[in-house]
Design brief:
The chain is mainly beta and 485 residues long. It is built from 2 helices and 41 strands.
C-alpha cells in the first residue's frame, strides 16, 4: 500500500500495492437460488478473486499486505460481503473489512479503504452514493471512525484489530475488482465537545456510565427496575433494555465483540455481558467486591474495585470467566484504562500512591500520583493518560505520557466525575457547577470550560461515531446530552 503522500492518481488498478482482484463465476446464480426465499441473509460469498500475482482467494479470507506505517510488518486485510434480497431480487454487496495484526508503528495514522471497478480510476461508493472512502483513525491502538465516515458505518475495535461495517452497503461485490488500504496522517473531524444538546433518556434512572461499540451506545445505571440498561444507535434516541440483574451497575466497556458491565452490588453476579447491548447475561464475578471500573486492552478485560482484601483487581480474556488479582495497594480503586501497552488505574484515597500500573492486568505496581485528590476516572488518548478528580484546589486533573510519572494540571475546581478522548479532544464532565459542567482540552494540559446542556449530575462520557455522549444520574427526561459534528 502507499501513504497519502505517495499514492497514485492516474491508474490505481495497476499501481496500488496489495490489490485485491475479483471475477465471479456462475456460482452467483446458484447462490441466489439457494437464498432467494429469505428476506435478508448474511453470508460469506465464496467467489474467487485474484490477489497480487493472481493467486485464488475468496471473500472472507485474509490477505497479508503492508501499508506505509507498518514497515515490514504484514497486516491482514479480510473483506466480506453480504447478500441482501428485496422485492424478489437480490445481490451481494461489499459490506465490511477486517484489518488485523496492526503494529504500534501505525498509531496516530488514518487508514483509508477504497474499492475500484475493473477499469475506472474513480473509487466506488461504499455506504452511500457519495462516500467513496472509508476512513479509520488509529488512536493509539483504539480504532475510531474517521473524517467522512461518522455516519453510514460502524467499527469494532480490538488489540491491533478493527472491523469496519457499512450500515447500508452500496457497492456490489460483482463490481469490485480491486480493494486498496492506505495509511496517512490523521485528519481531525467529528465533534470537538464544545456545543451540547439535551436528549431524552429512556428512563429517569441514575445513569453512571456509557460506552460505544458494535454501532451502539450503551449506558448502565445504578437504579431502575429491570431497565438499568439503555441503548442508542446515535446517542440521540434511546431505548430501555432489560438488565441481567437489578444491581448497582457502575461501569461498562466494549472489547473483543462484547459489552461488559460491572457492579457495586449483587451476590456472585456482579458482571453482566452482552454481544449487542440488548440481551444481557449475568456472569460470576471473581469476588463480591464493589467493582468500580472496567476496561479492555491487549486481549484482556480488567476490572478494579473499591474494596476487598488482596483481590481488588479481576481479569478475564472473554468477559465471562474472571480471576482475582492482587492490587498494588488496598486503595479504593475507581477507574482503569489501557493505552501505550499498559493498564493504568486510579484511586480515590491513598498516600502518594493513588495510581497503579500493569503490563498485563495481573501484576501491579504502585505509582506516585501528582496529588492526593479523589481521582474518579482515567482515560488515554493522543499519547497521554489523563485522570480527573472531585477534590483538590485547581489541580483536579493530572496527566502522564507513560502512566508512571504524573503532573498536576490546572482546572476549575468543581469536581470532575468522568473523562474520555475522541477526535483529538479530551472531554470531562462534572456533577457540579452552574451551566459549565463540561470542559475540553486538546492535550490534557490546557482546559476550557464549556456550557453543559443542563445542570445535571453528569457521571459518564464517551465518544463514538463522531459524537460525544454524556449520561447523568439526575434530571427529568434529559439525562443524556450529546455533542455532534
Amino acid at each position: 500500500m502507499s501513504s497519502f503522500e505517495d499514492q497514485y492518481f492516474d491508474d490505481p488498478v495497476e499501481e496500488s500495492r496489495g490489490p485485491i482482484r475479483k471475477r465471479f463465476s456462475s456460482i452467483l446464480g446458484i447462490l441466489l437460488l439457494l437464498v432467494g426465499g429469505s428476506y435478508l441473509v448474511q453470508t460469506t460469498f465464496a467467489a474467487n478473486i485474484g490477489l497480487n500475482s493472481g493467486r485464488p482467494v475468496e471473500f472472507g479470507q485474509g490477505i497479508l499486505t503492508t501499508t506505509a506505517c507498518s514497515g515490514s510488518t504484514n497486516i491482514s486485510v479480510t473483506p466480506n460481503s453480504t447478500f441482501v434480497n428485496s422485492a424478489g431480487a437480490g445481490a451481494f454487496y461489499f459490506s465490511s473489512v477486517r484489518v488485523s495484526n496492526i503494529p504500534s508503528s501505525c498509531n496516530g495514522s488514518d487508514f483509508t479503504i477504497n474499492a475500484y471497478g475493473e477499469s475506472s480510476s474513480t473509487p466506488l461508493a461504499l455506504f452511500n452514493t457519495t462516500s467513496t472512502s472509508a476512513v479509520v483513525y488509529n488512536n493509539a491502538g483504539v480504532f475510531e471512525l474517521g473524517v467522512g465516515t461518522f455516519t453510514g458505518a460502524s467499527i469494532s475495535s480490538g488489540s491491533g484489530t478493527f472491523t469496519i461495517t457499512f450500515t447500508n452497503p452500496v457497492a456490489l461485490s460483482s463490481s469490485v475488482f480491486k480493494l486498496t488500504i492506505q495509511s496517512g496522517p490523521h485528519v481531525e473531524g467529528g465533534s470537538t465537545g464544545i456545543t451540547w444538546t439535551s436528549r431524552t433518556s429512556a428512563a429517569n434512572n441514575a445513569w453512571v456510565s456509557v460506552a460505544y461499540g458494535n454501532r451502539t451506545f450503551v449506558a448502565v445505571g445504578a437504579s431502575g427496575t429491570g431497565n438499568r440498561v439503555m441503548t442508542s444507535p446515535d446517542g440521540i434516541t434511546w431505548t430501555s433494555r432489560t438488565s441481567a440483574a437489578d444491581n448497582e451497575w457502575s461501569d461498562v466497556t466494549y472489547g473483543n465483540d462484547i459489552f461488559v458491565a460491572v457492579s457495586n452490588t449483587g451476590a456472585g453476579n456482579r458482571v453482566m455481558t452482552s454481544p449487542d447491548g440488548i440481551t444481557w447475561t449475568t456472569r460470576t464475578s471473581a469476588a463480591n467486591n464493589q467493582w468500580q471500573g472496567v476496561t479492555y486492552g491487549n486481549g484482556t478485560f480488567v476490572a478494579v474495585a473499591g474494596d476487598g482484601t488482596g483481590n481488588r483487581v479481576m481479569t478475564s480474556t472473554n468477559g465471562i470467566a474472571w480471576t482475582s488479582r492482587a492490587s498494588a495497594a488496598e486503595n479504593p480503586w475507581t477507574s482503569v484504562t489501557y493505552g501505550n501497552g499498559i493498564f493504568v488505574a486510579v484511586a480515590s484515597s491513598g498516600t502518594g500512591n493513588r495510581v497503579m500500573t500493569s503490563p498485563d492486568g495481573i501484576t501491579w505496581t504502585s505509582r506516585t500520583s501528582a496529588a492526593d485528590s479523589e481521582w474518579r476516572d482515567v482515560t488515554y488518548g493522543n499519547g497521554t493518560f489523563v485522570a480527573v478528580g472531585v477534590s483538590g484546589t485547581g489541580n483536579q486533573v493530572m496527566t502522564s505520557t507513560n502512566g508512571i510519572t504524573w503532573t498536576s494540571r490546572t482546572s476549575t475546581a468543581i469536581g470532575w466525575e468522568a473523562v474520555t478522548h475522541g477526535n483529538g479532544t479530551f472531554v470531562a464532565v462534572t456533577s457540579g457547577g452552574v451551566g459549565n459542567r463540561v470542559m475540553t482540552s486538546p492535550d490534557g494540559i490546557t482546559w476550557t470550560l464549556r456550557s453543559s446542556a443542563a445542570d445535571n449530575t453528569w457521571r459518564g462520557v464517551t465518544y463514538g461515531n463522531g459524537t460525544f455522549v454524556a449520561v447523568s444520574a439526575s434530571g427529568t427526561g434529559n439525562r443524556v446530552m450529546t455533542s455532534t459534528p
